[in-house]
Amino acid sequence: MISAPLFCSTPAFSTSLPFSLSSASASSRTKFINPSVTKPPSTFCVPRTAAFSLDLRDDHSKTCTAVPRATLQEVNIDEDVMLSEDTAMDAKDIQFVEHLLKLEDNMERYTTLMKLLKQDESRFFRISQANLSTILPIIYTPVVGEACLKFSDLDIPKRGIWLNVWEHSGNVYETLKQLAIEQVDVIVVSDCERILGLGDLGANGMPIPVGKLLLYSACGGIVPKNTLPIVLDVGCNTDAIRENAKYTGINKPRVDKETYNKFVSEFMDAVQRLYGKECLIQYEDFGNHNAARLLKQYRDDYLVFNDDIQGTAAVGLAGILAALNIDKVNTDLRHHKFLFLGAGSAGIGIADLIVLALVQKGMSTEEAREKCWFMDSKGLIYNGRPAKLTKEKESYAHNITSTPNDTTDLKSMIELLKPTALIGVSTIKGAFDQSIIQTMCSINAKPIIFALSNPTSKSECTAEQAYNYSSGNVVFASGSPFNPVLLNGHTYIPGQGNNCFIFPGLGLGVALSKASVVHDSMILAAAQKLASLVSSDRLASGCVYPNIDDLLDISAHVAKAVWSEADRLRVAGKSGVDVTVTDIRSSMYEPGRVRLSGY
C-alpha cells in the first residue's frame, strides 16, 4: 500500500504558542505591519540581487490558484494594517493570517494550513516565509506533536509515502519508481519509534517528516516538489495507537531486528538507485537503539544526516558558543564543563560536537571528552559504574575520586562536578527545579542552562522558572518556544534551540555543493556560523539565537559555510569558491512576500 496520507487519536495533548491569540479588545488587536517601515535590518541580512541563478527556483510554483472563499471566510482587515505599494496585492494573505489567529485552537490552525498547502502550495509558502515566527510553531514544534497524537482524527489532505515491511519488502524500488518523481533533493524518513518525547506512534508520525520538509522549503529555499516525506511502517509497540480503528498503518507490533535491518537496507539502496547519490536522506525520530547505529552504518556510502543527533548537536553547540559572548560567562570554551541530563542520541551528539570544537582548539580527544559528563536513568555515567553502558556512553565514562551514595540525585552531581553548563535532553518535565537552578547559580557567576527537551510538556523547566529562580542570572535556552519574561524591569528573551536554524541551511548547502557525504566538520561549520549571526542586542537580552523571522537569510549563510567546508574537505562535487551568500540567497525558492509582525 502506498498512501499519500498525513496525521492519530489518543490522549489530550497541551501545547502553547509563543504569542497571544486573543483579539478581544482594540488594545490587543493583531497588527500586520510592513517590515520596511518598522523593522531595522539584521546585521547579516543578505541583498537579494544575485548576478546569476543557482537554479533552485521552480518557476511553475509561482502560478497561484484562488483559494475558495469558504476556506478564507470573510474577515475585516484591521485598521492598523499598513501596506506598501509592492505588497498591496497581498491583502487577502493578510486576511488569511488574521483569520488563522482567530481560530479556536492549535489543531484548527494546523488543519487550515494543511488544507491551504494542498489547495495552493505557492500561497502557503508565501505566507509562511513572510510570517515564520507565527507559522513555524503551528506547522512544527510544538503543535506537530499534537498533530501526531491526533493524526487519525484530523480532517486534512494526506501527504507523504508509507512503505510497510509486510507489503513492500522486496519491491521498494518498484514501488517508489511508480511515483514517477524525476528529481528528489531531500528525503526525510522516519520509522516513528521515538516521536519527539511522545514515544512510539507508529505510522501516525507522518506529520514529522512532512513538517521537516515544509521547513526545508520555507526556511531553506528548497523547491517543495523536490522533497519527499516517507514513513517506514515496521510496526508499532504502543497498543493504544496501533489498535485504534482509524490507525493509518498496519496493526502489528514492530518487526525483529533482522527483518528491520533488511528493509532499511533495501530502502536506502532503492533511494540511491532512483534519485542518485546526491539525494540527501535525513533520518528523523528513529529509536535511540537504531538512530546512531544507522547513521554510522550508512554515512560513508550515502548522503545521510540525522537531525535528532547532528542537527540538535549543531543548534546546541551554536547556543553555547553564542553564550560565551554574554557578560559574566567565561569566553573560552576550554574552561567550561558540561553536565547532560539524558544520555540518548541527542545528548551524545551535542557532546561529540563540543569535543570536535575543543579538538579544533588544540585539545586532545580524551581531554575534550572529560569536559562532558552524563546522567541517564541509572544515574551518573562514570568509569566502573555497575550498570551496563552502551559503546557511545562508554566514551563519556570518566574517573571519579569517590563514588557518592546516590549518583541518581542531580543536585548532588552538580555539587560534585561543578559544571558551568547544564543541558537537559531527558524529556523529564520539571527536572530543573528551583533547587537545581539555584545550585547552578551558587557555583557559577552566570550558568548556562538549556532545557532542550521537546515538546513543551516535556521541558526540564520553563523560561519563567529559569529566570525567576536565578533572579535573571542565567543564560537560558529551550527546545520549544517560550514567551519573553519581564523581571525587575528587564525583559529576557529565551532562545529557542530550534533545529530549523541548522538543517534547512545545511541541506541547502549539501544540495548546492553536490557533496558526497555529510562530514562532522560540515556540521561544526554550520554551528559556528549560526553562533556568529546572533546580534549584540539579542545577546544583551539573554538570547543565544538569532530572530527566527530571519531564517531565509540565516540559511543562506549556513549553506555557504557548509559548502565552503565541503570544498575544503574535497567532498564537494561542485566548487562554491566563487559563489557568495548573496548568490545563494537570491536563488532560494521564495514565491512572494508579505510580513506579519507585532508578536
Automatic annotation (TrEMBL):
CDD domains in the cross-refs: NAD_bind_1_malic_enz
Mark the transmembrane ranges. 309-326, 338-359
Span of domain Malic enzyme NAD-binding: 309-567
Q: How is the cofactor bound?
A: Divalent metal cations. Prefers magnesium or manganese.
- The UniProt record gives the binding positions of a divalent metal cation as E284, D285, D308
Question: What are the UniProt keywords, alphabetically?
Answer: Membrane, Metal-binding, Oxidoreductase, Transmembrane, Transmembrane helix
Could you say which cofactors this protein requires? Mg(2+); Mn(2+)
| Record-level Gene Ontology MF annotations | malate dehydrogenase (decarboxylating) (NADP+) activity; metal ion binding; NAD binding
- Enumerate the spans annotated as Malic enzyme N-terminal domain: 117-299
Q: Which residues bind (S)-malate?
A: R194, N454, N498
In terms of Gene3D superfamilies, this protein maps to: Malic enzyme, N-terminal domain, NAD(P)-binding Rossmann-like Domain
Family as reported in the entry's similarity comment: Belongs to the malic enzymes family.
The protein's name: Malic enzyme
Question: What gene is this protein translated from?
Answer: me
